[in-house]
Amino acid sequence: EDVHALFDAQIARRALLWNEGEARPPASRHLWYAMESLIARARPACGMFPCRWSVGDRVDGVILDVNHSLPLALAWSTMDSAMAEDIVCSALSCQNEDGSIPAWVCADGSTSAAARTWPLLAQAAAVAWSGRRNPEFLQYALPRLYRYLADVTSHTDPATRGIHCWQSSGESLVPETFDA
């Protein structure tokens, strides 16, 4: 593809947000900043990630924070639904043989073995799917989501009593509330 044409197309898409005219509503400045932050964190496919992905902000370095997949899918779905799909696919590509997905993954494949993902990846996939209803996305995501959800269920409810609990404070949405 012509890089200059892609660049011009992206500038045209953002022209209204970059306009500094007096008619610009104050909220659009925040929207512009949020959009540009998303774009700045976007990365091309590389290493572990077969699709475009987004750099996380929890630690220094180049890392995919799988726990951010849902808010990223929500944000990208308003701008570029293919990017929302890519973020979910890159997160799903980090899946282990047992169906688990680590919370943080580096492009070189190193992971946070101790921390598991929050059970929000299926919602991220639903958001990504709603944009284009791309059958190729479903073909890639569904088998992985099935294995992921089976793992999450067996991990959070090992006695299969229908009572799901975090197993450690590190995987809790609010670590301070974890009660062993």
Structure overview:
- It contains 6 helices and 4 strands, in the order ααβββααβαα.
- It is mostly helical.
- A two-stranded antiparallel sheet has the order 1-2. It has a two-stranded antiparallel sheet with strand order 3-4.
Strands, helices and their partners?
Blueprint: H1 3-18, H2 26-41, E1 42-43, E2 53-54, E3 63-65, H3 69-77, H4 81-92, E4 104-106, H5 121-132, H6 135-156
Antiparallel strand pairs: 1-2, 3-4
Helix pairs in contact: 3-4, 3-5, 4-5, 4-6, 5-6
The percentage helix is 40-55%
**SSE run:** HHEEEHHEHH
Structural class of the secondary structure composition? mainly alpha
Mean pLDDT: 83
Tally of contiguous helical segments: 6
> Low-confidence spans: pLDDT under 50, at least 5 residues?
none
Number of strands: 4
- In spatial order, strands of the major sheet run 1-2
Strand count, sense and closure of the main sheet? Answer: 2 strands, antiparallel
Distance between the termini: 54 Å
Radius of gyration of CA atoms, rounded to a whole number = 18 Å
Percent of residues in β-strands: 5-15%
CA-based shape = globular
